[in-house]
Specification:
This protein has 5 helices and 4 strands; from the N terminus they run βββαααααβ. The chain is α+β, with helices and mostly antiparallel strands. The chain has one domain. The protein has a 4-stranded antiparallel sheet with strand order 3-2-1-4.
Length: 148
């Protein structure tokens, strides 16, 4: 699947996902609220090889306008993505995020998967920060596209 982030204005973008069979789904979103979140989802799910989270569901046929079923793998992914998204604009490290996250997730009665390490979160942060800089440099109408 190709995942494209199309800059439609300074304040908005279109997330477009084109599956291997040629079918596609897209949604226009407000940049300030959603871009970092969507980029962290993409980076985390790809880096951690998650296939039953947000982008895995899209690859399997869900539409971007469908309500996401926040259960199972996706529920845990959302718990991880939220603090990583917040850390993108800071100097926070994967270790700092993971330390705080373990306590929060324990209160929810969940466990962070063993493969979610500080190193994994550092790679997600690094890719997302670099991609945000690349996106900021785009002109309206340009896009960044990545293989899922």
């Amino acid at each position: 699947m190709e995942v494209a982030f199309v800059k439609t204005s300074h304040a908005a973008y279109t997330l477009r996902c084109t599956r291997a069979d040629g079918s596609a789904t897209e949604r226009s979103l407000e940049t300030r609220s959603f871009l970092a979140h969507d980029l962290v989802h993409f980076a985390f799910e790809r880096e951690a090889k998650r296939s039953a989270s947000f982008f895995g569901g899209i690859a399997a046929g869900s539409a971007l306008t469908d309500p996401a079923p926040f259960a199972g793998e996706l529920a845990v992914t959302e718990l991880i993505v939220a603090p990583v998204q917040s850390a993108v604009k800071t100097r926070a490290t994967g270790q700092e995020i993971l330390s705080g996250l373990k306590d929060y997730v324990a209160v929810q009665g969940l466990v962070i998967p063993a493969d979610v390490t500080p190193e994994l979160l550092d790679r997600v942060l690094s890719w997302t920060r670099a991609t945000m800089r690349r996106y900021d440099a785009l002109k309206t109408g340009d896009l960044l596209a990545f293989a899922w």
